[in-house]
Amino acid sequence: MRSVLAIAVVAAAAAAVLFLGSEAQEVKQGQQHTHRISEHRHGEGNRLQINKMYWDPKCICNKNAGSAGDVLEDDPVGRLKVYVYDLPARYNKKLPEKDPRCLTHMFAAEIFVHRSLLSSAVRTLDPEEADWFYAPVYTTCDLTPSGHPMPFDSPRMMRGAIRLLAERWPYWNRSEGADHFFVTPHDFGACFHFQEEKAVARGVLPLLRRATLVQTFGQRRHACLQDGSITVPPYAPPGKMEEARRLLPPGGTPRSTFVYFRGLFYDAGNDPEGGYYARGARASVWENFKSNPLFDISTERPATYYQDMQRAVFCLCPLGWAPWSPRLVEAVVFGCIPVVIADDIVLPFADAIPWEEIGVFVAEDDVPRLDAILTSIPVEVVLRKQRLLASPAMKRAVLFPQPAQPGDAFHQILNGLARKLPHGDGVFVKVKPGQTVLNWTAGPPGDLKPW
Ligand SMILES: *[C@@H]1O[C@H](CO)[C@@H](O)[C@H](O)[C@H]1NC(C)=O
Ligand SMILES: *[C@@H]1O[C@H](CO)[C@@H](O)[C@H](O)[C@H]1NC(C)=O
Fold first, then answer.
1. Which residue, by CA, sits nearest to atom 12 of ligand 2?
2. Centre of ligand 1 from the C-alpha of residue 430, in Å
3. Counting beta carbons within 10 angstroms of the beta carbon of residue 375, is it exposed (0 to 12), middle (13 to 18) or buried (19 or more)?
4. What pTM, to 2 d.p., does this model score?
5. Is 38 touching ligand 1 by the criterion CB < 6 Å?
6. How many CA atoms lie within 13 A of 309 on its CB side?
7. Domain residues for 114?
8. Any idea which ligand is nearest the CA of 206?
9. Is 367 in the same domain as 354?
C-alpha cells in the first residue's frame, strides 16, 4: 500500500510541475492568459481529486463485479458446423512463414481465426452437414519493408481462391457464397484500399457481396460495411498485454492520469494539407489540449505505453484513417475507459459487449469541449464503467489467444455466425444453368489478372 501512495504523491507532484510549467508559458502570451490560466486551475483541481476518487481498488479485486451479460457468455459449440476449405498453402500458411510480422500486426486475426477453426469443436470434415463454409485466405500478409500491410493484390488473391473452390467443390455455386464467410481485416474491409475515398469508389469486391464478411471495419451507412457483416476487434498481442499487466502490482495502481493518448495527430505524409486524416479530429485534440494538464497526449510512444494505460482514467480512441484502432482493445484490456471519437462507428461485437456502458462517446465536432465533457461525468458513473471494464469476460472478448479460449474473440465470431442461422430461403440461388447472380468479371481490369 505504501508504494501505491508514493506513486499517487509523485503523480500529483508531477501534475503540479506540469501545471506551473504551462502557467509560466501562458503568462507570456498576453491577452487571453487570464482566462486560460483559470481554466488550468480548474483542471488542476480536478486532477488532484482524480487521484483520490477515480480509483476504487475493490472493484479490481472483485472479479464478478459488473457481469458482462448473457450474450457474451454464449457457447457456440453445438449451434453451428463449419467446413474449412483446404486451399493451397500459398493462400495462407506460406505467407506468415515468409514474413512472420503478419503474426503480430493489427490484422493478424485472419491467421488466428483459421488456426482456431482447425482445432475447434464446431469444425466438420463433412461439407454436406456444414452450416457455414470458410475459406482461409490471408489477404493482409503483403507487407512493405516498413511493415505496412498493402491491400493491392488482395482482390486478385480473393478472386483466385474463390474461383478455385467454386471449381473443386459444388457449394459455392449453389449459394454464390451466401453460406460462406471470409475474414477481411483490412482498414476498409473487402473494399481493399486504405484510403477511404478510393475504398468507397471500389466498393466491396463484387464476388464477396453475398458472403458474410468478418471484418474490423465498422461504420454505419458505409459502402464497405454490408448488412450481416460481423465487426471484430483488431488484433492486439495477448501475451505482451498479459506481461504488461503482470508488471504492475496485483490489485492495480491508482489511475493518476486523467486522459491518455499516444499516436499521430497529423499524417503529413499521406495528408499534407490536413483535414482528411481522422477528419481533423486528432488535430483538434492536439491543438486544443496539448498544454492542458489533464491531458497526457503525445506522438511518442514510450516503452511503458501499456503500463501508462493502466494508470489512466480515460484513453482516447479517435478515428485515424479508419474509425477504429487497436487502442480500443488496449483500453478494455487495461481497464482504461475508452473515449470513442468516431462518428457512426460500428463497434466490435456490439450485440455482446455493452460499449455504451463501458465507454464514452464524443462526437467529432465536440472535440474542442472534450475536457468539459470528461470532467463533468459523475464519479459514480466513472467507477461503474471501471467496474464493468474490470470484468474478465470483457477482456477475453476482445482478444485472440492461442489456443482459443471460451468467451474469446474467436468464440464471439462463432456466436455471431450461429445467430445468423438458420439460413433464409434467399441463400440458395435459383438461376438457370450457366447464369450467375454475381458478376465474375466486374471490377477494375487490374483485379482480373490471375493471382
Ligand atoms: C461453378 O460456376 C463456375 C462459373 O460459372 C464454373 O466455372 C464452375 O465450373 C462451377 N463449378 C462447379 C463445381 O460446377
Ligand atoms: C460484368 O461486369 C463487367 C465489367 O463491369 C461488364 O462488362 C459485364 O457486362 C458484366 N457482366 C454481366 C453478365 O453483367
1. 439
2. 15
3. middle
4. 0.84
5. no
6. 27
7. 85-235+402-448
8. 2
9. yes
